[in-house]
User: Which sequence fits this backbone?
């Protein structure tokens, strides 16, 4: 079993839809949780970062962490065609360097 | 440059060939990471440098993989006697410091195809 599980999709939604992306993890030592977006043939770019349970909002994006369930989510409101990309969850340990453990990524397509 | 630069962007190698992949991190970034991303998978950690010191090489898949950062800036990932299973995108990331709450910036990667 991988330390971080993520449904690879693909997920196809109409423009304007609310998108929910999820990851589960098995290692309770993870303290930092990130969401990266990766466009085709590009490197990942950081979208959201959080280190505690609860919600964090940034524009159309909301990251949610439930440490008791070992479950994290990313919600995208009013999705746009430009949101079409692969979304990677990533996790790290406190007290050390930022060696990240990534999920497999979920491919999202937002169609007009 | 403004971002992490990797070269070459694409590399085709015959099985058994040696390859060298280059990473130019953001100027002043102390920490540098190499990741391997297989098709349809997330990046997997290979190795970590703090300045010129290689502090973690636990992710290198075999002794055919070797990384260096001799002057604490540019890094090279070398793969000897390439095998087909080495085909992947190799990503380099750098961050100002190494702590986990510091954003790591990724390059566009080098896509290696071993034929």
Assistant:
């Amino acid at each position: 079993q991988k330390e971080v599980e993520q449904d690879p999709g693909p997920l196809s939604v109409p423009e304007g839809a609310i998108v929910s992306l999820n990851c589960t993890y098995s290692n309770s030592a993870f303290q930092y949780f990130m969401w990266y977006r990766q466009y085709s043939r590009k490197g990942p770019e950081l979208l959201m970062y959080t280190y505690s349970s609860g919600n964090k909002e940034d524009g159309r994006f909301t990251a949610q962490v439930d440490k008791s369930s070992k479950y994290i989510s990313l919600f995208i409101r009013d999705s746009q065609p430009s949101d079409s990309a692969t979304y990677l969850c990533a996790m790290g340990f406190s007290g050390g360097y930022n060696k990240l453990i990534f999920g497999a990524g979920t491919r999202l397509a937002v169609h007009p | 440059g403004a971002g992490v630069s990797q070269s070459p962007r694409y590399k085709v190698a015959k099985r058994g060939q040696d390859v060298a992949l280059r990473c130019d991190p953001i100027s002043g970034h102390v920490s540098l990471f190499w990741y391997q991303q297989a098709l349809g998978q997330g990046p997997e950690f290979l190795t970590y440098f703090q300045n010129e010191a290689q502090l973690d090489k636990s992710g290198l898949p075999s002794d055919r993989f070797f990384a260096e950062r001799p002057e604490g800036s540019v890094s090279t990932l070398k793969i000897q006697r390439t095998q087909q299973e080495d085909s992947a995108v190799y990503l380099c990331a750098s961050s100002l410091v190494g702590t986990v709450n510091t954003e790591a910036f990724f390059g566009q990667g080098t896509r290696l195809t071993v034929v």
In short: The CA atoms of residues 81 and 110 of chain A lie 5 Å apart. The interface with chain B takes residues 4, 6, 8, 31-32, 41-46, 49, 51, 88, 90, 92-94, 96-105 of chain A (CB under 8 Å). The longest strand of chain A covers residues 30-38. The radius of gyration of chain A is 13 Å.
